[in-house]
Amino acid sequence: MKKLFSNQWANIIFIVIILVMLIPQTRKPIAIVFNKLIAFSPSVTAEEEREMLESYDWTLETKDGKKVNFSEAKGEVIIVNYWATWCPPCIAEMPSFQELYSDYGDRVKFYFISGEDHETTNNFLKRKGYRFNSYRMLSADPKPLNGYTLPTTFVIDKKGAIVINKVGAADWNSQNFRNTLEQLLAKE
């Protein structure tokens, strides 16, 4: 009898989880929490497998409508993150980016790229208390960068080599990633 009762509870819990995932209002918060739980420090690409940026010619637009050319970051350590306000894995990794930005915003160039209008992204960033900027693309991104899958993040060294190409959520504030950034910043 006890085994039968525990099996029924397991079935009830399973059905409740399925129902909660079907309801749009609860699906997104659950997906965000799940993505935070599975986000690990991103892996560094082996030096012999790293791709190089073909160009730094890329025009972006700030929230104020000002045009910025990506070439201004040439010779710097750069983080490019493609994201959207409706993307649960993107939302899940944003707190770790904010912590990283707070500590490295003056030494690393951060580019958060969204295809959404500035009003949408700015309202989202303001509501969440994030202090970094979001950009919109005005020209095609330089190859091999692409943001077809969200989120996608590229970490680029001072010479234009893509050190990390991460698709999906990650813990960007991990000690492991901070060590990688410190190594990249120390290189000439």
UniProtKB/TrEMBL annotation:
Q: Which UniProt keywords apply?
A: Isomerase, Membrane, Transmembrane, Transmembrane helix
Output the superkingdom of the source species.
Bacteria
Q: Which residues form the Thioredoxin domain?
A: 49-186
Membrane-crossing ranges are 6-23
Q: Cite the PROSITE patterns for this sequence.
A: THIOREDOXIN_2
Write down the Pfam families for this protein, in alphabetical order.
AhpC-TSA
Q: What Gene Ontology molecular function terms does this protein carry?
A: antioxidant activity; isomerase activity; oxidoreductase activity
InterPro entries (UniProt xref): AhpC/TSA, Thioredoxin-like_sf, Thioredoxin_domain, Thioredoxin_ResA/DsbE_sf
Q: Does the keyword Lipid biosynthesis apply?
A: no
The protein's name is Thiol-disulfide isomerase or thioredoxin
